[in-house]
C-alpha cells in the first residue's frame, strides 16, 4: 500500500514537472516569435471596438471605399495585401482589416463560426466605413462575403473573391473526429503546445513553399515571417481560431447565398491553385452572372505573386460600369 502511494506521488510530481516545462516552453516560443515585430505599424493603427473584441484595421487613401479581407487562418493578417495596398489607396479609400482571432486583433476564447464573421463584416461596414463598399476577399473569407451580401446586400457594391474554397469542403460539418481535435487543441498548456507545433516556423515555411506559392524560390520572406508572427500573437490564443477551423466550425453551406446574391461578383483564381478550374465552374453553375479570371504563374496568393497582373484586373473590374 505504501509502495503504491509512493508511485502515485512520484507520478504526480513528474506530471507537474512536465507540465511546468511545457508551460515555460510555450511562453518562450510565443515571446521569441514576436521578436522581429513584423506586424508593428508606426502609423494608421485603428481599432474597431466590436462586441466580441477589438478588431484592428488600417485606413489609407481617398476615393470610393474598398475593404480588403485576408484569408482566414491562424497566421492570417492584413499584411497579405501589402504589395497592392498602397497602389489601391491612390484610387480608393482602402480599409485593411485583421479579422477577429487573427493578427493584431483580439483572439477571444470562443468557437468561431461563419455567422460571427458575417456579422463582423456587416457591422464594420455600417459603423466604420459608413457607406456602401467594394470588397476584395481571399480564401475561406470569401464565404463570409457571399453570406454577408446575401443577408444585407445594401452594404456592399462589387465583390472580388480570390481563390474561394470548394463548395464541397464548405459543406463538411463538424463530426466526432473534428470535434475531438477541437477539444484537444483547446486544452490548456498541452493544447497550446500542439498548436505551437502546428504553426511552427518549419511548418509555416513548408506551407508557403508547397501550398501557397507557385514558385517556391520567390516566396516573400517578410510575408512568411508576418504569417508566423501573427499565429503567435496573443500568447497562444490563436489556437481557438485554429481549433474552430480544424473542427470545421467555419464551414457553412453557402449555396442559398450564392444563388441569391445580386451584387456584381468576380472570382480571381491562381492558375496553379489545386482544383481551381472545377471550383470556378461550380460557382458559375449556381450563379452564372459571376465573372472569373485566372492569373498565370500564381497559386494561393496571386495578389502577392503577380501584383501587377492582379491590380490590372482590379482596375478593369471595379472601374467598369454597372
Describe it for me?
It is a single chain. The protein is of the alpha/beta class and 322 residues long. 48% of the residues lie in helices and 15% in strands. It is globular, with a radius of gyration of 21 Å.
| Helicity level | 40-55%
Oligomerization state of this entry? single chain
Please write the string of helix (H) and strand (E) elements: HEEEHEHEHEHHHHHHHEHEHH
Strand content: 15-25%
Structural class: alpha/beta
If strands are numbered along the chain, what order do they take across the biggest sheet? 1-2-4-3-5-6-7-8
* Main sheet attributes: strand count, strand direction, barrel closure: 8 strands, mixed
Q: What does the radius of gyration come to? A: 21 Å
Parts with pLDDT < 50 across at least 5 consecutive residues: none
Looking at the structure, what is the overall shape? Answer: globular
Q: Residue-averaged pLDDT, rounded? A: 91
Number of strands: 8
| End-to-end separation | 83 Å
Task: Please work out how many helical segments DSSP would assign.
Answer: 14
Q: Which descriptors would you attach to this protein?
A:
322 residues; alpha/beta; eight-stranded mixed beta sheet; 48% helix; globular
